[in-house]
Specification:
2 domains, Enolase-like, domain 1, 20% strand, 9 strands, single chain, alpha/beta, 3-stranded antiparallel beta sheet, 11 helices, 256 residues, globular, 6-stranded mixed beta sheet
């Protein structure tokens, strides 16, 4: 599984590290390592269990070994626990010497042809808007939006992915597909895509983990350590990426 490769690539950057602080909001969660590096992942709310005091593990993070919590990406019992594992991994990625592609716009340096069909898994509005200006068609799948608004005309049904994705020239995947265990079933559907981009704060910026996959671009973010208090405060108040993006260091790298 791809997430095993992600954890393996992150291990050298996790050894000897521990968790200094953490925050879980309604939209995002954040983790700070003992070296000050910050990692963020999305909160996938749709499949979380209901009830009071069902996430006791989140209160016991501080001081834990980073490797132990990162392993939750593999062993976590729900999307929140796996997301915390991913937040630790994204924090560990910061500081690598990664060569960025041109990401002055939201097409991440790739060539988008006017004949292209683009598939997007996880609706990210600014990126969808960018590709709509360049491609023939952008087809969007978003499970959460589909469940909240079953009659929405903005997104296609998730069950149509096996039929539609093989016809896409470019595919854009949310990093959360690694958290919710869908990435390994999605990639074989993208059989004819010449570019597959993984995007979002939950994207683990470890190119070596994706060298043997169909993913060609990782487009995630690192975070300004000196803005940790501002970042965590906003996350605690249910902010999303648009409210904290001023503290981000956007990254976009090729995996091959």
């Amino acid at each position: 599984m791809i997430k095993n490769k992600v954890l393996e690539a992150a291990m050298p950057h996790l050894k000897g590290r521990s968790i200094r602080d953490a925050v879980v909001g309604l939209s995002l969660m954040g983790v700070e390592l003992d070296n000050g590096n910050i990692g963020i992942s999305y909160v996938l709310r749709e499949q979380l269990p209901a009830g009071c005091s069902v996430f006791p593990y989140a209160q016991n993070l501080m001081g834990k070994a980073a490797l132990e919590i990162a392993d939750w990406l593999l062993t976590g019992q729900d999307d929140l626990q796996r997301g915390l594992g991913m937040a630790v991994i994204t924090a560990a990625s910061a500081g690598q010497n990664l060569h960025d592609v041109d990401h002055s716009d939201l097409s991440f340096g790739i060539q988008v042809l006017p004949t292209d069909t683009v598939g997007m898994i996880g609706y990210i509005h600014p990126i969808a808007r960018e590709f709509r200006m360049k491609a023939k068609e952008v087809i969007i799948f978003d499970k959460g939006l589909s469940e909240r608004e079953p009659n929405s005309t903005e997104v296609f049904l998730v069950q149509d992915q096996p039929k539609i994705l093989p016809n896409c020239d470019i595919v854009i995947l949310s990093g959360t597909t690694t958290v919710n265990n869908t990435i390994d079933e999605l990639l074989p559907m993208c059989s004819n895509a010449r570019e597959i981009i993984m995007v979002g704060a939950s994207t683990p910026m470890f190119p070596d983990a994706f060298k043997d996959t169909k993913i060609t671009i990782l487009a995630g973010a690192w975070w300004k350590n000196d803005k940790k208090d501002d970042i965590f405060k906003k996350i605690s108040l249910a902010s999303g990426i648009s409210q904290i993006q001023e503290y981000s260091i956007k990254k976009a790298v090729r995996t091959k």
